[in-house]
Structure to design on (194 residues):
């Protein structure tokens, strides 16, 4: 379900503070994660992939060596949903470990 | 080492026939692989990731659900090398299994 206008101000603010960018045109959030090397970047992607599959909510992402650029949006509701917020928070948690 | 002009005609032709596109501006090759679902797409990426790490030659790639778009080029020689050909062939082999 699309995030309500009321929810957005409270829910998106902490993500923006954590480095996520809100792409208004596509109502998506995106962030670039940097790692020391490819193995650590792909290890992170594997964690996110498994969680994605568990929630049946998958990212749009790009990887070049130690850099992973992830974008979350929900095609079913044509914009940000609670699942995008949940996955963005999961990414930050997985990255910080 | 950059592929020689002589090598290119014989080496690149089979890859082009197999669906790879040569991007002249960046001297790279790119191909989009389609799978039935995310698990199979990410399984393919995992095989390619492990091989990449073994050869210390990593892709530039993008994944959206069941679609994986891979680009190979060699930054050290600013264009296509034998490693790109080897990895492109590995991708086709991994995909066909």
């Amino acid at each position: 379900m699309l995030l309500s206008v009321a929810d957005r101000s409270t829910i998106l603010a902490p993500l923006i503070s954590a480095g996520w960018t809100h792409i208004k045109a596509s109502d998506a959030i995106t962030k670039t994660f940097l790692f020391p090397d490819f193995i650590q970047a792909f290890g992170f992607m594997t964690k996110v992939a498994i969680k994605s599959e568990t929630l049946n909510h998958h990212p749009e992402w790009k990887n070049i060596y130690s850099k992973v650029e992830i974008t979350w949006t929900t095609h079913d509701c044509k914009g940000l949903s609670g699942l995008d917020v949940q996955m963005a928070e999961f990414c930050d948690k997985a990255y910080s470990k």
